[in-house]
């Protein structure tokens, strides 16, 4: 049950109402339809309300799985959390909750591997992965996990091995999860220029389906046309 906090603004309330309806359908629809609904996630028209809300922390804390201390990426992805959490600090707190819930569920560090880079995997594993030797070992483990189709764990090991590009590629090519790929870039690189360039590149390739230089050329032409028309 969603707790409609008094601190949530009107846009946030509209989003939470859509979440409530979404979760009701997940409980009531036939199983095949539930799976399709979860895979598609909350419609983007509903996510816009959360994006325009000025109370994103309250929104996040009002979600059912968060209130139950069972935050997990599958549920949060279907609710579009990676799209509307604008604050990097809020995003980090979100993934810390996911990591904590994942670890407590089975007491297995690798269940939290995808999410704990920002709360230091060395709290869970004994080796220092800033060392070149252990980075190499992490990458080796990542490729072994890839061969076993344990893609989420592989992403975690790629991040331990300081290979952001490989982690992003797995999210896109093997997990079909654009939202997670962009979230990982933000968590890994922060609000840096590099993060913005990587996100721009991914969006050009995955959404616009063109190379970044083609987009830049088109954008330049568009700006030139705007100046002529103005």
TrEMBL record:
**Which Gene Ontology biological process is one annotated for this entry?**
vacuolar acidification
Q: Which Gene Ontology terms of cellular component type are present?
A: RAVE complex
Q: Which InterPro entries match?
A: DmX-like/RAVE_component, Rav1p_C
> Which residues belong to any copy of the RAVE complex protein Rav1 C-terminal domain?
5-114, 120-208
Full protein name: RAVE complex protein Rav1 C-terminal domain-containing protein
Which organism is this protein's natural source? Trichinella nativa
């Amino acid at each position: 049950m969603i707790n409609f906090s008094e601190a949530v603004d009107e846009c946030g309330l509209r989003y939470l109402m859509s979440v409530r309806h979404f979760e009701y359908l997940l409980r009531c629809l036939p199983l095949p339809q539930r799976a399709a609904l979860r895979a598609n996630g909350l419609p983007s028209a509903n996510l816009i309300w959360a994006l325009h809300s000025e109370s994103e922390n309250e929104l996040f804390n009002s979600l059912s799985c968060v209130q139950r201390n069972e935050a997990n990426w599958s549920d949060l992805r279907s609710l579009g959390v990676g799209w509307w959490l604008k604050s990097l600090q809020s995003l980090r707190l979100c993934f810390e909750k996911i990591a904590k819930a994942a670890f407590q569920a089975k007491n297995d560090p690798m269940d939290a591997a995808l999410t704990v880079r920002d709360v230091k995997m060395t709290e869970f594993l004994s080796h220092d992965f800033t060392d070149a030797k252990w980075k190499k070992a992490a990458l080796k483990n990542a490729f072994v996990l890839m061969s076993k189709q344990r893609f989420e764990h592989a992403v975690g090991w790629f991040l331990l091995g300081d290979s952001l590009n490989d982690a992003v590629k797995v999210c896109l090519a093997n997990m079909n999860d654009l939202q997670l790929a962009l979230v990982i870039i933000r968590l890994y690189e922060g609000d840096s220029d590099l993060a913005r360039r990587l996100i721009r590149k991914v969006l050009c390739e995955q959404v616009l389906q063109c190379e970044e230089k083609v987009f830049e050329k088109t954008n330049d032409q568009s700006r030139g046309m705007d100046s002529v028309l103005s």
